[in-house]
Amino acid sequence: MSADRPLIRFDGVWKTYGRGEASVHALAGVSFSIDRGEFVAIMGPSGSGKSTAMNIVGCLDMPTGGRHGFLGADAGRLDRGRRATLRNRYIGFVFQGYNLLARTTAAENVELPLIYRGVPASERRQLAMQALAEVGLNGREHHTPAELSGGQQQRVAIARAIVTRPMLLVADEPTGNLDTARSHEIMDLLTRLNREFGLTVVMVTHEQDVAGYADRTIRFLDGHVASDTLNAEAA
Amino acid sequence: MLWETVRLALRSVRRNVLRSFLTLLGIVIGVAAVIAMLTIGSGTTEKVKSDIAQLGSNLLVVRAARPDRSGSTSFTPRRLDEKDVAGLVGGLTSARAVSAAAQSTVRVVFGAQNTAADVTGADLDYFVARDWGLAEGRLFTESEARGGTNVCVIGQTVRTLFFGAGDPDGQSIRVGKMSCRVIGVLESKGTSGFGQDQDNTVVMPLTTYQRRIVGRRNIDTIYVSAMDGVATSDVQEEMETILRETRRIAPGADDNFDVRDMTQIADAMASATATMTGMLGAVAGVSLLVGGIGIMNIMLVSVTERTREIGIRLAIGAHERHILVQFLVEATVLSLLGGLIGIAIGLALAGAASLALAIPFAPSPAVILLAVGFSALIGMVFGFFPALRGARLDPIVALRHE
User: Fold this and answer.
1) How does it sit in the membrane (chain B) (predicted)?
2) A122 neighbourhood in chain B, CB within 8 Å
3) What pTM does this model have?
């Protein structure tokens, strides 16, 4: 299942805000690696550094110390433009608050990453429709976010994340705004994408039953990895 | 990609119609003012130039100098007479036409109609010097001119007033106390640069005018038309030399006559008009600058409002330049839209003004293109800073923005 080398590799990663005595270490020497095709849940209380780690995994942020390897590259040393390219080519994002563009149809939202890739309009539309079908949103393509339920909006967001066929899906509390039934639907969808397409999923959550969908759980505490366990009974 | 961005920008403009309109207003007013000013200005210049052409080509006019009111005149006043005319006719080497003339305002009557017309007595060369052609009939002949026959040529205003659509040829009109036979009608010359209707005129042989209208051997004006390709200033110098001789003015004494170069006057008027136009245009240009600042202001608001959107776009792989171009195009679309509306309003204003002021409507494609280019440039220049600010946002911070 796993490739010859890990997809993501943290080697003693530090993230420090501020300087001198006022400095805060959001991450204090974090090391772990995630292989292709894994489904990993990241847990921990607020302030534990899990969101910071998540931002670095998603190439949105850079470590102040240590090494963040992504696809064998030293992603933490890349400039803004190169990191934007990495995000566009290999990473999809799903957020707690969906983060869809308002007054823009579901299909247009899903097309957005393709626009930045320079995919021609006709092909874009076709790929967007396909992605929306994969998340079970046929017939809703021309609805705006305001016309969709929370669960449906999150599906649009997932379609937007997978339309570029990324290697990695970064999900930040994807079920945080949903009720239990919707949460399980979304988690079933993520699990299916992981199983069927071999999509690597890294997900931050603070709900134990949501984390239970993953193969593995990394727990953060005070900027350190407190535990890193396989969820044997999952799936 | 670019088309995509333009569509996005248009959508964002439509989303805030009122705000977009108010932002546009600055550019609209600025461009409208510039276009109206320059169009009216070039119309005025054209009008002045055509007025000058109406006076006659390369026209120089001699009048007797008048004493000052204060009485401190340093020359001996003397009327123009036949000797001056003969001197100019014989002495000028590069004149196309020399004509003595006298004129006054006289009541002209035909049937129940009457008007106070400008009545001129002149030689045949008058029509050459003033570049004034016939519309109907004929001019008076040499023998009619010599003999002082009571024939006359009338202007368009007089013709319309007296005869309407009828045939004026051979009709008798009363000029002052004299009865006069109409033999021809002059072409229309319109209003002069000094606001006088040049077509409200009756022209007759000078001899007829002197004998029958004023009863004196009077010459008020000598019209001289220089040949083409000859500098009017050279002709003017020559004329002054000849006139000083015929009028026996001692060396060192002041001229008791006055030679005016109508071309020079015309050029001076045209350049004054152009300067005025330029200045007004520059003032209008300042309002364009103000409009640009308005665009910058609204784009800053727009970038702040859409911080989260920028964050989303950056997260899913937009590069800095994508965001930069997006907001730059939006600012440019805004100001270009304002520019186009401004051009329409400016042209409408200039059109109305040209009707009201009776000047030609002279829209210049170059000025319009310049206005389009300039308004787009303003959008880009004033949109750049806000767009750069948006593009440089940290995606994490932008995503957290409420």
Assistant:
1) Multi-pass membrane protein
2) none
3) 0.71
Residues of A in contact with B395 (CB under 8 A): 60
* B66 near A CB under 8 A: no
- C-alpha neighbours within 13 Å on the C-beta side of residue B324: 10
C-alpha span between B279 and B290 (Å, rounded): 17
The alpha carbon dihedral of A27, A32, A37, A38 has a sign of negative
- CA torsion through residues B123, B125, B129, B130, sign: positive
At a CB cut-off of 8 Å and minimum separation 6, what does B87 contact?
Answer: B242, B243, B245, B246
The answer to whether the Cβ–Cβ distance between A81 and B320 falls below 8 Å is yes
pLDDT tens sequence across A193-216:
999 999 999 999 989 999 999 999
Segment B380-401, tens digit of pLDDT: 999 999 999 999 999 999 988 8
Of B180, B189, B183, B205, nearest to B120 (Cα)? B205
Q: Which residues of B touch A121 (CB under 8 A)?
A: 4
CA torsion through residues A20, A21, A24, A27, sign: positive
Cα nearest neighbour of B12 on chain A: A103
Yes or no, beta carbons of B312 and A58 under 8 Å apart:
no
> Contact, B346 vs B29, CB < 8 A?
no
Q: Which domains does chain A have, with CATH numbers?
A: 8-101+166-230 (3.40.50.300)
Q: What is the DSSP string of A120-178?
A: -HHHHHHHHHHHHHHTT-TT-TT--GGGS-HHHHHHHHHHHHHTT--SEEEEESTTTTS
